[in-house]
């Protein structure tokens, strides 16, 4: 079976779709899976060893200059590559008009959400096969259910990401043990208050963990520098340089702890089985938060931010939990 998975954005949504690949290769050994994704997120599907090829698209950039000759050449090149792969099925995991448009570029039969279940019902008109999915499911389980119905297998057990974390240098990382604090998000209502971050930085320093602050935009860098400037010199966090997604993944797996708001990197941390505390208030944790590993916990709900004490308690629990596939040996070490 030669498959094209269409999940172009956003970062968290792309990460939530990765267990679908694991499910497919378990149910259909030998399946060949390509992933079509927005160019800025192309490094993410490549972390899964069973993704054959990552095919970047640039919808966010194309829509700004749709009638330019250069844009039309890029679109034609993507269409030719997708048609040339001769897919047996294109599976639209996004349910948007833009993802349906990309799926149609493949020339293959398309499967996706039913009109009732698609985020944009008009997208379902492009699908040859449409499937209902329970809207009360977690976002990951909705995607797993869609793929299983489309390909004729049963979803079993918790989601498995099976990611291969990159081993590469990360500029600016502290030499001491560190906690990666994912403070930045594009939506103001998702931001944990700065006074909570400042208090957490101080408490982690008392526990021997220096805070490391990544950022992705000038505004996020300014917030990181503000948090660093507010700390006492002995407790000052490290403001990292701008990192690629692969470098972010490498920084995550080396961290002793990751605390983050509802943003793509927090979901990546949980997917990589790093000790993760995910902070929610503006979005429902039951729909988007990690649930598949004791190494990650979600806190907060319905507009109520978790307090510092709750975060520190959760941090202790996830740090004490064993990584996937590890167990204590007879002498109390890890086997």
TrEMBL record:
GO process terms (BP): lipopolysaccharide core region biosynthetic process
Keywords assigned by UniProt, alphabetized: Cell inner membrane, Cell membrane, Glycosyltransferase, Lipopolysaccharide biosynthesis, Membrane, Transferase
Reaction catalysis annotation: an alpha-Kdo-(2->4)-alpha-Kdo-(2->6)-lipid A + ADP-L-glycero-beta-D-manno-heptose = an L-alpha-D-Hep-(1->5)-[alpha-Kdo-(2->4)]-alpha-Kdo-(2->6)-lipid A + ADP + H(+)
Principal subcellular localization: membrane
E.C. code: 2.4.99.23
Pathway connected to this protein: Bacterial outer membrane biogenesis; LPS core biosynthesis
SUPFAM superfamilies referenced in this protein's UniProt entry, alphabetically: UDP-Glycosyltransferase/glycogen phosphorylase (SSF53756)
Membrane topology reported for the UniProt record: Peripheral membrane protein
Subcellular compartments: Cell inner membrane
InterPro entries membership: Glyco_trans_9, LipoPS_heptosylTferase-I, LPS_LOS_Heptosyltrfase
A GO CC annotation given for this chain: plasma membrane
Record-level Gene Ontology MF annotations: ADP-heptose-lipopolysaccharide heptosyltransferase activity
Database matches in Pfam families: Glyco_transf_9 (PF01075)
Family assignment from sequence similarity: Belongs to the glycosyltransferase 9 family.
Name of the protein in question: Lipopolysaccharide heptosyltransferase 1
Species the sequence originates in: Zeimonas arvi
């Amino acid at each position: 079976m030669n498959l094209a998975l269409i999940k172009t954005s956003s970062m968290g949504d792309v990460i939530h779709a990765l267990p679908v690949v694991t499910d497919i290769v378990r149910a259909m050994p030998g399946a060949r899976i390509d992933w079509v994704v927005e160019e800025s997120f192309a490094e993410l599907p490549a972390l899964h060893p069973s993704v054959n090829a990552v095919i970047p698209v640039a919808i966010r950039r194309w829509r700004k200059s749709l009638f330019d000759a250069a844009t039309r050449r890029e679109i034609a090149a993507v269409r030719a590559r997708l048609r040339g792969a001769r897919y047996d099925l294109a599976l639209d995991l996004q349910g948007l008009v833009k993802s349906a448009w990309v799926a149609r570029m493949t020339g293959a039969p398309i499967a996706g959400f039913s009109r009732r279940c698609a985020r944009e019902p008009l997208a379902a008109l492009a699908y040859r096969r449409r499937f209902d999915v329970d809207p009360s499911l977690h976002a990951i389980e909705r995607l797993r259910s869609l793929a299983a119905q489309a390909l004729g297998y049963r979803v079993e057990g918790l989601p498995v990401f099976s990611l291969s974390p990159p081993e590469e240098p990360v500029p600016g990382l502290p030499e001491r043990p560190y906690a990666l604090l994912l403070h930045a998000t594009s939506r103001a209502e998702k931001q944990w208050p700065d006074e909570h971050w400042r208090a957490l930085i101080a408490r982690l320093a008392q526990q021997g963990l220096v805070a490391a602050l990544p950022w992705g935009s000038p505004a996020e860098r300014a917030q990181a520098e503000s948090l660093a400037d507010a700390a006492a010199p002995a407790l000052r966090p490290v403001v990292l340089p701008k990192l690629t997604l692969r470098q972010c993944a490498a920084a995550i797996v080396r961290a002793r702890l990751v605390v983050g708001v509802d943003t793509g990197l927090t979901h990546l941390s949980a997917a990589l089985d790093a000790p993760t505390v995910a902070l929610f208030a503006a979005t429902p944790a039951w729909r988007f938060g990690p649930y598949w590993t004791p190494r990650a916990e979600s806190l907060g709900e319905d507009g109520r931010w978790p307090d510092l004490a709750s975060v520190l308690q959760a941090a202790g629990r996830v740090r004490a939990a064993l990584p996937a596939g590890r167990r204590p040996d007879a002498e109390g070490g890890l086997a």
